Amino acid sequence: MMTLSDKERLQALLRYLEHQQMANQFQEQLINPTNILLPEKRQYVSRDVSNRLRDDQGKFLPYNYQTMEELDLILDNEAEIQRKLKIEPIEGSYNSYVVHEKEKRDWSGNVYLACVAAILAIVFFT
After folding, report:
1. Theoretical Cys-Cys bridge with 102: which of 7, 39, 81, 84, CB 3.0 to 4.6 Å?
2. Are 39 and 27 in contact (CB under 8 A)?
């Protein structure tokens, strides 16, 4: 089984190899100017999604869904709660809407700012 760090290292290596391949193509074009000036277009393989897992709303789940689920259980992460949106039409306009999002306020930034301000005040007055 491949760990997340191994996957990231492998993806970085693949990106490096693709970059190196493009650099080699450009270098060949500089040496042999008779070739086409544009690099070859990468052909993407289309994935078969007929048997892919879906969530309750019918959206596709990620391919590594089982490993993500296991990682959440191991790290004891809580699933994010869906956003609650309220959409209201704007009076006197055509197809224009106002979106109100009900969201919990994140106080962590304010707490950090207060701590930094307190430390600076202590340093300034001593």
Report:
1. 84
2. no
